[in-house]
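Forwarding the complex inputs:
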Amino acid sequence: MPNKSAKLGLIVYCSVLLWSCTSMKKFSSNYFYENEQTLTTIEQSYKKLYQDNQFSVAFTDRTFNNISFEIITDSIKLIYEFEVTETRLQDTLVKYKFPVKEVTGLIMQMRAVKCIWINNLDYYSNQQKRSLVYMSFRPVTFRLPFNNEKYYTLTFYAQPQYFDSEGRLFATRQLRKHRKINDEIFRRINDRVCYTVSERFR
Amino acid sequence: MVSLFYKTGKFIRSPVLHMLIFLMLGSIAHVFANENPLADTTPLSTKKQALIYLEKNKELAASTFWPNVPPVFFLQNLKKNIDNPLSIYEGISTNFCGYAAFSYLPLHDDPLGYLTFMIQLYRNGKAIYGKEYFEPSKEVKLAAGTLSFKGELDIRPADQLWFLALADHFKGYLNFFDKQYHTGDENKLWACVNFAKFNRMVRNLFNYQVSAIGSDLFRPGIRDMYEYLANKLQTGTVALLVNNVELFKRNHNRLKVGIPSHFIILLDVEEVNDKIAITYWDYGFKSRQLLSASFLGKIIFGITTAVKKTTHAQ
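Prediction (whole assembly, two chains):
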């Protein structure tokens, strides 16, 4: 009898594990298309704002009420913590000459799609510096206890990228080697957008 | 002499010989220390001296030992490090943060010593730095200059060489199961630095007076962290071993494991209202962040203070 219940337990555990894996995969492939317009708007407005003032934003809690706002100047990175509705956030944005309405709008859009991190990431291709917009999301899926949190990450490139037959991102057209970002292989969503599922969100 | 024993391999194999040499070297060091009080000082040099030395070596020939490190890019990288010591960059997703943090010391206090070592290592494939003899493995020599997808580290071959040589040479308990370099090991246990190893590297290479408090698992029991750090900053360079995950992820997870994983150099500490503003160096950049005293106490696991040994101090 105990043997039978142990077997049953094992089957249930494996089923849940399998379900959580497929659920994550489905989340990855569908998420971009379901939210394409909002995600593209976030990417475009972030890129535009970043040209004038370099910054990145992270939501630091599960309830999406607190952010870490990183302002990058020529000599130092200033890391501030705010509640999203706090007036201190707006005062700081004014102090560093950010367009307040646009930045707070971006933060609210991020909150709406549960984007926990956005930044500009430099990478090198043929010794040339390039940059991409990196966005991470915390998927609301079932997670087994003691399993690490997984994040859904999107990368937006300025130029079309090259992929293998399975849709994995190549380093360059000539170099048929998979490009890794944050030690992860990314997969194609379209020519300029890739995704991965990772334990790291930044 | 030490290098001779390392080369023959007998130094490691025979514990009796090991002990004899240790005693012999110890007594020699003791004699020197007594005869010449200047011997036990921290080597210091200036940026100007380093740049003159670099200029003298501008015709550096390609090294057969480091086939993937072209001399032009190697020298460019070294010059960048001398001109802007804060720009040294451990790379995205590597475990080189300990080596990058400890590079702060020679780049600021003894850039000539750093350059001399780097150029000798490049030219001869082996070199001595402080008390240590370096002769990196063949795998490491082939890997330097080929690391990619690490951000700016991709185009800094001298930094790749430096980090790989250090990781190849110094071993701590975290490296126990992965001692031999294989491709991709820069992101794995092979490159990890534990707190004791960090302090040993600072002592053995640069001869600072090192005082350390804390450990890899337990936080130091410091009642007033602000006061402690402020006092330490007045005496020397302060490196912190912190729980980086906690610093960035905060409340994403319900279950959090408090293990430190990142070395930073503390540059300034200041009380701002009821919080503490820390200015620190990591990832090739200075950052300033306001934290509560309790949170700061929670993320710091190790504090290392490196004080220059001077003749005056003696």
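Strands of chain B lie at 127-129, 132-134, 209-214, 237-242, 262-272, 275-282, 285-292, 300-307.
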